[in-house]
Amino acid sequence: MTYKAIIIDDEAKARRLLQVLVEENCPEIEIVAQAEDVPNAVKAIHQYKPDIVFSDIDMPVYNGFQLLDFVDKTDFELIYCTAHNDFALKAFEVSAVDYLVKPIQISLLVKAVEKAIRLRNATSTITQRLDTLKENLKEHILKKIALPVADGLRFVELADLVYLEAEGAYTHVILKDGTKLLISKKLKEFETILSDNKNFFRIHRSYVINTDAIQQYIKSDGGSILMSNNVSVPVARERKDDFQKLIESIRL
After folding, report:
1. CA distance 239 to 11
2. According to a count of CB atoms within 10 Å of the terminal CB, is the N or C end of the chain lower?
3. Higher pLDDT, 96 or 77
């Protein structure tokens, strides 16, 4: 099956380079048009009805995030091409909006295209995922995360997380309403994603906790944390000192 794609970038050289990379490495993708700005991209989208749109972010007049404000129907996947900083890339990841960092690596391009094709059948729309991305970027802090579940994506406020528990290559995500989600990501990946949020702490090799959900710190029997859902989480011996410093910093 062939998928139609459009490239948007204000630099002609960047557009040509990306088209060559796509044509040489993604045979299922047909580049049907290029555009140097958002207004011309909107015309091309309405004319060709692409499956995938590759878009630069920083462009004159309208940026790549504003593209969806002008199109009639968003039944395509967006892959942003960006040179943004580490936080922005983390925000892209947790919002399930795909991106490629310039200069573009072929292996990551192929991976992004494969993911975009899969997401075309997901229950969540690109509009919903882009709204989450904008919310996370707005205050330069992650507030919401898109979790891959069996039937698509579930969008969860970080404030609603109680703790995360490792299970091999998977992670159990426990929410305040009692929901327990099994996510196909390692706990280390979640720790990296949440590293800029001071409310989340790796208390044990198997647990990352939301410190806002701590009900009680029990120092006896090696140390444990009673969370807001009445589940006890162990404190690793090597994490006790760091956790004690954290407790001191937030104690009244």
Report:
1. 49
2. C
3. 77
| Structure tokens that stand for 248 in this block | 């001191």
3-state secondary structure of 124: coil
Q: How far is CA 199 from CA 43, 125, 139, 181, in A?
A: 45, 29, 16, 20
Phi and psi for 162 in degrees, rounded to 5? Answer: -95, -55
Closest CA to 209 of 151, 161, 146, 154: 161
Q: How many residues does the chain have?
A: 252
Q: Which residue has the tokens 């380079």?
A: 17
Q: Which domains does the chain have, with CATH numbers?
A: 3-138 (3.40.50.2300), 159-250 (2.40.50.1020)
CB 114 within 8 A of CB 77: no
Average pLDDT over residues 18-41: 97
SS (H, E, C) 125-167: CHHHHHHHHHHHHHCCCCCEEEEEECCEEEEEEHHHEEEEEEE
Q: Is the dihedral of CA 144, 205, 88, 113 positive or negative?
A: negative
Q: What is the pLDDT of residue 235?
A: 94
DSSP sequence for 93-118: HHHT-EEEESSPPHHHHHHHHHHHHH
Q: Which residues, in sequence order, are CB contacts of 192 under 8 Å at separation 6+? A: none
Q: What is the tens place of the pLDDT at every residue in 94-148?
A: 888 889 998 999 999 999 999 898 887 665 678 888 888 888 888 788 899 999 8
pTM reported for the whole predicted model: 0.79
Q: Compute the average pLDDT of residues 165-182.
A: 97
142, 194 contact by CB (below 8 A): yes
Q: Token match 């007049």: residue?
A: 61
